[in-house]
Backbone:
């Protein structure tokens, strides 16, 4: 299927590895020019080189910096001639007990997982509307639908973003101008973050890391972890010309792990 995206420009955040990189790769395969961001210069430049090799016909720009700061956002936006597609992404805050989190911990979580996406949306959606095309995909978490007790910082910040997007996506001056805003909710994906989380859990429980991973896999109906490539493919479709009637939605991608009907 031709997604109708050739020649568009995308800003993909936290794209040096993991799910962000999967999204950037999928878009590049569709002929989308990308500006990718991440804090680590070395990993980012390596990803940029891989993306250029994947499709030499597109432009790939890499901007190392902290997207949660005004300076980092300004540099990323300046490197992207126009933002037709915005993929918001940032690592989640650490797990823990809410009794140990002070105001600074909460502000850091909100900055990364709620306020930064909102600032980037504010900087781009009006231009999208003027051009008559725009796609915003926020990578949030399956914990938005089924909160995880030790991830309270993430539960709170990402749920706040979800509520904000639900209202904004339904504004006719955006939806009526072919600008969509949706959230993509990952479950357990084979990424560095998942491996680190399982290693920490294994150390705490006394289990071997592989045993911990096996138990986690067995709890997923698909009996496996997701891949960054298939996550990116779903993201690319949500950004496509065919997805103009999809807006304000939370798309859960978790191998069937969520047990609810709605």
Residues:
């Amino acid at each position: 299927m031709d997604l109708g995206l050739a020649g568009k420009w995308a800003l993909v955040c936290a794209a040096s590895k993991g799910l962000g990189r999967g999204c950037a790769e999928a878009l590049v395969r569709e002929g989308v020019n990308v500006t990718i961001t991440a804090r680590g210069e070395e990993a980012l430049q390596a990803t940029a080189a891989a993306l250029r090799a994947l499709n030499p016909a597109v432009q790939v720009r890499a901007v190392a910096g902290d997207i949660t700061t005004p300076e980092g956002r300004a540099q990323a936006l300046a490197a992207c001639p126009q933002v037709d597609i915005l993929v918001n992404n940032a690592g989640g805050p650490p797990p823990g007990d809410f009794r140990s989190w002070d105001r600074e911990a909460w502000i850091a979580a909100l900055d990364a997982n709620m306020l930064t996406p909102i600032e980037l949306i504010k900087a781009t959606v009006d231009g999208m509307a003027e051009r008559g095309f725009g796609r915003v995909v926020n990578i949030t978490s399956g914990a938005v639908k089924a909160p995880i007790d030790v991830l309270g910082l993430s539960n709170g910040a990402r749920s706040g973003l979800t509520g904000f997007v639900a209202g904004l996506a339904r504004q006719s001056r955006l939806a009526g101008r072919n600008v969509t805003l949706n959230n993509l909710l990952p479950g357990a994906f084979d990424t560095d973050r998942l491996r680190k989380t399982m290693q920490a859990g294994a150390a705490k429980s006394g289990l071997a890391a592989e045993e911990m991973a096996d138990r986690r896999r067995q709890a997923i109906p698909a009996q496996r972890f997701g891949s960054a490539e298939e996550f990116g493919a779903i993201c690319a479709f949500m950004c496509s010309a065919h997805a103009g009637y999809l807006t304000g939605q939370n798309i859960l991608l978790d191998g069937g792990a969520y047990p609810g009907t709605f």
The two ends are 29 Å apart (CA to CA). The first strand starts at residue 9 and ends at 12. The chain has a mean pLDDT of 95. The chain has nine helices and seven strands.
